[in-house]
Amino acid sequence: MEEKILICEDSLEGIFTAVYQVYAWKLDKDHVVFQIGEEGNLRLFAEYITVAPEVEKAEKVISTIIRKMGEEVYWDICCMLASRDPEKGQAVFRTIVTALKTGQGREVLSNVKEPYIQKAFELARNVNCEVHHLYGFLRFAELENGMLYAKIGPKNNVVTLLAPHFADRFPLENFVIHDVVRRIFVLHPAKKGCIVVTGREYDAFQLPGESEEEMYFQALFVEFCHTIAIKERENLTLQRNMLPLRFQEFMVEMGKK
Amino acid sequence: MEYKICEDKTIEEKLTILTDAAKYDVACTSSGVERSNGKAGMGNAVKAGICHSFSSDGRCISLLKILFTNECIYDCKYCLNRRSNDIVRASFTPDEVCTLTMEFYRRNYIEGLFLSSGILYNPTFTMELIYQTVYKLRTVHHFYGYIHVKAIPGAAPEVIQKTGFLVDRMSINLELPTAEGLNRLAPNKSRKTILAPMRQIQNGIAQNKNELVLYRNAPQFVSGGQSSQLIVGATAENDFQIMSVAEGLYQKFDLKRVFYSAYVQVNQDKDLPALPGGPPLLREHRLYQADFLMRYYGFRAGELLSEERPNFNVFLDPKADWAVRHLEQFPVEINRADYKMLLRVPGIGVKSARRIIQARKRTRLGFEELKKIGVVLKRALYFITCEGKMMYRTKLEEDYIVRNLTYVKEKLPFEVGSVRYEQLNLFDMASDPSIHYKQISQIDTKVLYG
Ligand code: SF4
Fold it and tell me: Is the confidence metric ipTM above 0.90 for this complex?
């Protein structure tokens, strides 16, 4: 039987819309392959269908996932979709199909015999790990207008996964998290929800310089980190294992650029 | 309350002095408390805990760990701040601690504050200063992040009580496992002054739990539980004594955590050991491993060690060490064994044991699946069967397994003593089968544990 290859946009909406279409069009799920973006090896004997993202359809899929698999698995799926792995679309698709078909619901990720679910599990674990790292390693600096500003360069597209944590932690602060790799700002105006800024708006976005006090507190923290170490136990290898270099370049105490 | 502030030092100088004085307290976790922000202030708490940085000794930095003051009326021999030491002294004001905490926290440098203190004037006065500081943080600055404070032994129970309603964790360090060691090295402290507030906090937590059942909005008392610390290697106690004390603290005082701190020689004193090889890090590591086994794996101290065998094996982690001495309980059938027994298999952790239980509801598990689940097969293979089959043909024999397990280099968080472990490895049983492993474990126990 001919394979159908669904080309979808690299976003939650993009991939969830494609999931919706598979069910709406009653495609044979064992012969559907999800591909993200146009690139990829063209296959002979396959039909290519481009699926444009549609918010309403994506939302229907989201509410089904939450209803059938619970909030936790939904969070894991969001993590999978933030991964930079090009096979994430297929992995998520197979996970959802299996969960709905077998009624395994929230236990679907413990299914060790299905390779795509294994893959999905791995992706979620990886991304979760980066999110948790950045909960700790992200550094804000205070700008002249009192706003807090953080720069990150994550492997995966985690900036929107990070924002809710910081919004809960700092409800009264205006803050910005900046993914310099993917050119995304997430803005959090005090007491309000978060806004994502990309594309042309990203280019037009202007930031003031650092506040006068900023240097002072940075210097205090650097001194603190330096002093808290016990010289008799020095262990730079362990430090580097726990705090990978790719995070260090954004951290004041590690001599950020 | 009157409190004279020494105005001669800047915040920078104080931070350096009072961080330096606090660094030997190893507790730095922020886990166990989940609290969302009330939308009115700053901060929340995350159950899993968050590490914000790592210092050059590889330890996690999660809290602003400082002393309120390094003045002290006591003279504990192992402590840098003891009265008889001639060192620079400094004290914060409550406002200074608040500023540092708030400004560090909003830059996401820290998860909260860990405030300890030397004893200024008297224990109650000191505890009152700690109380004032956290009171300001919670009520003036509306800080909802994590706070851990020391309860000062000998302070009035009322002050400890009211502080407990503001903080997530309280700790009182027992420091030395035996009363005798305590008398010798901390002459101004006694078991009684340490255990009395510990009991008070334990009762406070228990009572608070009942109140919370009745009134959901009752204020919380030390909701992250209490912890304590034991110094390792400053006195002659063996591992069995240390683990038994820790077990007692968990069982009789409901402690959340016991920390172990490899003794760092900060003072020259005839009552203290010289440690030419540096702090006993491997020993500390083994104690943490064993502590973990007690808290999460259902082991008792008496199963891991005994009067006849009072110290941990240098070459094997405590769980593997236990397993090879209890081969009569193995091999374990993965598709049938209960959770408790799965946990006792080397190479299977809490996560993989749970995943095994989940996964085998649907399918019979083989070694391929175990690998995917995250079981470390090169350690587990001697102890398990899948559908009645072992992975390879192996002998269920102590010496054989020990030899093979030590081939698999254990992942340690440090190069053990940089020198000593390497040296020991050179003549370990892997390269010289004529040396019996039991003999070795006796030799090196002496070498390492001095
Ligand atoms: S009471 Fe003892 S351990 Fe605590 S600061 Fe004073 S001398 Fe040091």
Answer: yes
